[in-house]
């Protein structure tokens, strides 16, 4: 399975000539997961070579304009392009009202399912699992952990037979990760009859937040943590007052969560040169880089 | 006086990697007039080198999403940039509701004056005069004629004296373009005591419309007519059904109005190569070109 993570917009609240407003695209075997949808996201998608007509789910971190104002225009273009697939949108309370109140302008001609969600397990299918965590921002912000291609280990029939488990429904329960109880009262856990599980690829996106332990929790061992770093530490007072992170804050999260790679995004327009952010983070966490629009991270699962 | 006309977005209803959604900027000695404000316009302005904090008036042709969805994000950025100047927005009935219903998202911190207007004289000051004409689209669409730097001729005191007009309030009336009545009953028209008037620069923008005589009227002798040409004539049935123009329609308007230059815009995303549009129009009107994002037209008044 091929997974691509494309930074569509790496700006903070105000775009710059180089950085569009926040959005990150994850392509999983041609299906699209969009994390936030700032103004201009539809065009960034086109420039990056992704169609608006594919299967797609949008996860919104919070209801500040720079993270959602790309939705109405995207819906209008999808309609003009005769999109067929329904579109699923997930976001905090209030996302429904925002989307529905602009329906008269964007006139969507396909099904839209809007889900108001909070923390915990948000979505799960055979390929993808999405977990949300409430971060710490001036507006309710959900950080997302997306695990792709994780699976239980292969079922080992010989081990099941050794344990005296009769072939049939009990095997099915164990294969799907459930414990069972044998007639003799013994509990068999699935890991006793399954091979090595596949961890899949884990990608975490913070949205807007100040330093937040909950993001450490959902980022444990992530392959990629995309964390906001609106400011450098010379503006840490302002960052914390406005409930944003510094590059140092983001690096601490990456270190504590033992992630493989950290990408800093939501860069304030004041930083024409982002060295100060990168160097500050690197003192704490080595494998860090600054998000740039259209930078792509490839994974094989 | 220096006047620059910058195409910020030349796309039709759907953006392309090359064309942003509709917007045209006119800079008059540093003040800005924006015609339409499709999604992404604020960033196009930045790329073109124009600040969001300058004196600015926005004129909206109609309430289709591709012409207005850049407004909420622009208002948010203006607030974050601590804009001081009030912002004037003009557009057809419904523009107020659209702007106000997104205030909770974009939280403007400066004064916004929204004017719902129709055809006729819309705005006028010493430098700029804006006239609107109802065009012919599926949604009420106002085409705009903007005349910049026009002035009455210089007042000629010797002519006034010759006609026996006493120095005083009557001179003032004539200077400002009003006719007067002398004691002997004779009517004096201002042109009898004024030198050659300055025509200024006239720029006309159609918005979305099928072929419409009213646009001929407001475009008479214009220096620049920016007219929509969503399709070429091979799709004239579709164009007319959807109340859009072909390149040929736009060229006919330019010819009848005897404009100096025609620029075709609102180009459908189907035309990767725009030669077909340009050639079709040139058969009717020689001085035509296709709008491209960031193309600039300079005038001295």
Automatic annotation (TrEMBL), chains A, B:
**Where's the Metallo-beta-lactamase domain?**
20-192
Is Transcription regulation among this UniProt entry's keywords? no
Per the entry, which co-factors are needed? Zn(2+)
Where Zn(2+) 1 binds, per the record, is at 62, 64, 137, 208
InterPro entries registered for this protein in UniProt:
Metallo-B-lactamas, RibonucZ/Hydroxyglut_hydro, RNase_Z/BN
So where does Zn(2+) 2 get bound?
66-67, 208, 266
Upper classification of the source organism reads: Archaea, Thermoproteota
What is the protein's given name? Ribonuclease Z
CDD domains per the UniProt record, alphabetical: RNaseZ_ZiPD-like_MBL-fold
Top-level EC class as recorded in UniProt: hydrolase
* The EC number(s) this enzyme carries: 3.1.26.11
- Whose protein is this, by species? Thermoproteota archaeon
């Amino acid at each position: 399975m091929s997974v691509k993570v494309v930074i569509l917009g790496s700006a903070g609240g105000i775009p710059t000539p180089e950085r569009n407003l926040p959005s990150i695209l994850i392509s999983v075997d041609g299906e699209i997961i969009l994390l936030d949808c700032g103004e201009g996201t539809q065009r960034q998608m086109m420039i990056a070579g992704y169609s608006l007509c594919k299967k797609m789910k949008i996860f919104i971190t919070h209801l500040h304009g720079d993270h959602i104002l790309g939705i109405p225009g995207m819906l209008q273009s999808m309609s003009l392009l005769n999109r067929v697939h329904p579109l699923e949108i997930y976001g905090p309370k209030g996302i429904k009202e925002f989307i529905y109140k602009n329906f008269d302008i964007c006139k969507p001609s396909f099904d839209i399912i809007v889900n108001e969600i909070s923390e915990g397990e948000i979505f799960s299918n055979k390929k993808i699992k999405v977990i949300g965590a409430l971060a710490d921002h001036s507006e309710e912000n959900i950080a997302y952990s997306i695990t792709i291609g994780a699976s239980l280990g292969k079922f080992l029939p010989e081990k099941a037979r050794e344990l005296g488990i009769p072939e049939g429904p009990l095997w099915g329960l164990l294969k799907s990760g459930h414990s069972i109880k044998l007639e003799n009262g013994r509990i068999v856990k699935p890991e006793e009859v399954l091979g090595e599980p596949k961890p899949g690829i884990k990608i975490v996106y913070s949205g807007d937040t100040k330093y937040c332990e909950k993001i450490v929790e959902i980022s444990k061992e992530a392959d990629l943590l995309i964390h906001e770093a609106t400011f450098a530490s010379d503006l840490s007072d302002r960052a914390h007052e406005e409930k944003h992170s510094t590059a140092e804050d983001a690096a601490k999260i990456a270190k504590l969560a033992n992630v493989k790679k950290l990408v800093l995004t939501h860069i304030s327009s004041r930083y024409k040169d982002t060295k100060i952010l990168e160097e500050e983070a690197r003192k704490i966490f080595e494998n860090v880089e600054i998000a740039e629009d259209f930078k792509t991270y490839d994974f094989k699962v």
